[in-house]
Structure formats: C-alpha cells, structure tokens
Amino acid sequence: MLSPNSTPNPFRDAADRQRNPEPCVLVIFGATGDLTARKLLPALYNLAHEGHLPTGFAIVGFGRRPKSENEFRAELRTAVAKHARFQPINPAVWDALATGIFYQHGDYTNPADFQRLAQRLRQLDRERGTGGRCLFYLATPPAQFVEITQSLAAVGLNDPDKWLIVEKPFGRNLATARELNRLLTRAFTERQIFRIDHYLGKETVQNILVLRFANEIFEHLWNQKYVDHVQITVAETLGVEARGSYYDQAGALRDMVQNHMMQLLALIAMEPPITLEAEVIRDEKVKLLRAIRPIRAADAAHCTARGQYAAGAVQGQTVPAYLAEPGVNPKSRTETFAAIRLHIENWRWAGVPFYLRHGKRLPKRVAEIAIQFKAPPAVLFAAETNVPLATNTLAIRIQPDEGITIRMNAKVPGAALHIQPVKMEFRYGGSFGARAPDAYERLLHDALLRDATLFIRGDEAERCWEIFDELLATWEDPATPAPEPYEAGTWGPPAADALIRAMGHQWRRP
Ligand code: BG6
After folding, report:
1. At 18, is the pLDDT very low, low, confident or very high (cuts 50, 70, 90)?
2. pLDDT given at position 288
3. Ligand 1 proximity of 255 Cβ (cutoff 6 Å)
4. Residue nearest to atom 14 of ligand 1 (CA)
5. Which CATH class is domain 200-261+294-433+481-501?
6. How far apart are the C-alpha atoms of 206 and 203, rounded to whole Å?
7. Hey, where are the domains in the chain?
8. How many CB atoms lie within 10 A of CB 16?
9. Predicted TM-score (pTM) of this structure
10. Which residue from 151, 159, 275, 316 has the fewest beta carbons nearer than 10 Å?
C-alpha cells in the first residue's frame, strides 16, 4: 500500500505526475446524481483520454434508483459527450472506459446490499487485478455520509487499501463538523479520508504557491511592512439555479466563504512550507488559520456585511429576486452575499485587513485575489503632480481569463510630468495555450494516487468553521437584522461599501 506521504506530489516533480495510479476500483455513491454526470464522469473520461487511469480501472456506481448497467452506461455517455474537455468524444477511449463501468442498485443502510458490493469488489479484484484497492466517492447529500461509511465498515470495506472522498458541505458549523469527523474516523482513519474542495483543483490556485515561492521578487514584500490590505473576491452572475432548497439552508458564508475562500486565503497568507509533502503544506495552512481572529458576535456588525439579491438585470437579462426562486422560503433570511474583514494575528500580517467578498447575481463572474501595496513615500512627485499616486496592486485572476496583473505607475509620454497607472499582464491562455485540466480531473487523479496535498484535513475543516461559528449563530438569531437587499446585477448591498470604507479602503471593480 502507498502511504499518502510517499506518493508523487503535484508540486514536487512534474515527471512523477505522469505516473499512473495503481489499479483500483472507484465506487461512486450517489451515482445517479448531478455531480456524477456533470463532473465526475467527464473528469474520468478526460483522465482516460490522457492515459492517466490505471490498467484494470473500474467504476461501480452505487445508487438508490433501480437501473440496468446498460442504461447507466448510456446516461454517462451522454453526460460525457456534453461535459468532457476533449470533444468530440473518442469512441475507442469511451468504449475502453465503459467496459469497466458497473451499476449496483442498493440502499445505504442495508447490510445485504453492502455484502453484495463487497462480493462484487472481490470479483472485480480477481477479474481486473485491482489488488483490493478501492476508492469510495461519497457524492451523496451529507446526511448519508455517516451511514455509508458505517455500512462499509460493517462489511470490512475499510481496510488500509480502501480510502474515500467526501464531498462538501462538511458540516454546517463547528459542532456538526466535529461530529462528522468523529463519526467518519470511527470507520476510516484520517489518512483514508480525502475532503474535497474543488477550488484547490484549479490550476490558478495551485499557482499561488509557485508564484510566491518560485520567484524571488514577491516574497520579500509579502508582509505588513509593504502590504496595505488584501481583497479576495469571488463574484458570480448566476443565482441559485435549481439548488434553491439546498442553498436556502446554507447561504453564501457556508457555501463559498468558509470553504473555498478560506482556502484561497490560507494559500496566499501561509508561511513557506519546508517541503512539499501533503502534511507539511497542510500544517502550514492550519497554522495560518489558527492565527486568524475568529469573528465574535460583538464584531459582526462592523466586520461583516450580508445581503440578499432582489430582482434586477444581470448582463442584460432580467432575473427574479432570491425570495422568488424555486425551493426558497419566501420569507428567507439567508444571505446570497457576504463581505467580511478578517485579521491574521501573526508577525507577518499584524494590522493588515483581509477583505473577503462573495455574492450571487453580481455584475460579472470573476474570482481574484488582489494584494494592495502601501503607497510609496510621496516626497518626490508630490509637488509636480497634485494627485496622489496610485498604489501598486498584484492581482491574481483565478477565473475567468486566468492570469496575473501588476499595476504600477508610469510616466505619460510628453514634456510634462504626468503619472498614470499601467498594467503588466501575464495570461495563462497566451503563455501556455492548452486548456487547463478541470479541477475535478486533477483532484480525482490525485485521490487515485492517494496524494492528499490538495484535500482538506479534518483539523483544517474544523478551524475554518471555528472562525465563523459565532458569526453564523449571530446571523441565524432572529434578533439580528435580516440581510440587506441588493439589486441583482450590482456589487452587493451598501453595507459592503461601508465595511471597507470604514478602514479607508474601497472595493476593486475587477
Ligand atoms: C460550489 C458552490 O461549491 O462552488 C456553488 O456550491 C458555486 O454555489 C460554485 O456556484 C462555484 O464554483 P466555480 O468553480 O464555478 O467558481
């Protein structure tokens, strides 16, 4: 068996990355769901297309709906034809993958169904040489995570050659995340548990560590002496689509901020790890998260802002209010926008505000991290130019138009001294051409290799909740004012502007 630390590491050795995982079976629970069709199978097909799947690889879909194996394969083929990165679908690649796709109808708590699963896995081992190795993917609603892992353990499917991927949401506050960790680790060890956060699978997110630690020019400036503040924005134009009933129980803070955005923050602010091993990188992230001052109930009013979209127009399209979305309680107090000011109480970042902003139905889809540097001393140009100099910004664009931009001041050509900010740009598309692998592709490949670097450790998940635990309780308190409405297609409620203005800053308009 490979231990997580002895497996190839994404940052360590590019040649290693070409290595194929050992033969194994992937069992997907929730196999008839949306995630399997839109993300998992297209990603597996892409991996097959790239030659990254091991020989003998098999997929067993486990679902509660009765369905024949042929029906299951046909549905997956349609999904792959629609969502795969490599188009059109290559029949030879698909056929090779499809011969290893199986379906098993079953109930998550029925011991007999799990006995049948164990039997099938033994049979696949014999036929395909998968050596007892099996990755379980829990693509079900979280309410089923515990019963599935307990059913697996009850039939002995939790030995060290079995490991699992757990989808989000991982709990809904600190207490539930702790409880989930406790129950999962009754059946599987921490090393067998891979908690997924698809933002870590994005190329641009992985590039944060490369930008910081493979270049000499940035790291010296990466601290409170030179950085004025940091803004992390994840803006979406979409509303809640068909997920109203899930979203109404979650809200922007749980859905995006506590997980994806905290990962961005951890990578941008953590100390350099001493090696690139999974545990070492995750230790550094946890250390950073521990240095973040949790938001106390008393701080909620001045450190945070929340909003809920009203009807409006996004990119020319009229859209309904959140309260009119299907599945949403018409009296809902769930936020679809959150802005938060965080402070990191360590030597590097003391006194530097980190602003996080996320919302649905904003004017454009963009995710970026902007490092806003302090102003240079004004002595030299103040007399000549009576406008203050623009400050330097380093903006890392996570999506779309992935790239990095540096804003700096330049002299406008001509006899007079006019200074104007200009941009220096790096674009992934321009420099590297090929479309980057999808996040799920990367993460599934790593999970098959049992490389946990890009997955969330249990203590990390809990710490992210801890930072927001009091805030979540405050927002849920009926005595707290409801989220402020904002018109769809605008940059959120006025309170978000007030939050940042109070510190003498302003939001970027990416
Ligand atoms: C998901 C959230 O985790 O991330 C969605 O549940 C959100 O609400 C999505 O839209 C955003 O992901 P991406 O990759 O499109 O930025």
Report:
1. low
2. 98
3. yes
4. 199
5. alpha beta
6. 5
7. 10-167, 200-261+294-433+481-501
8. 13
9. 0.94
10. 316
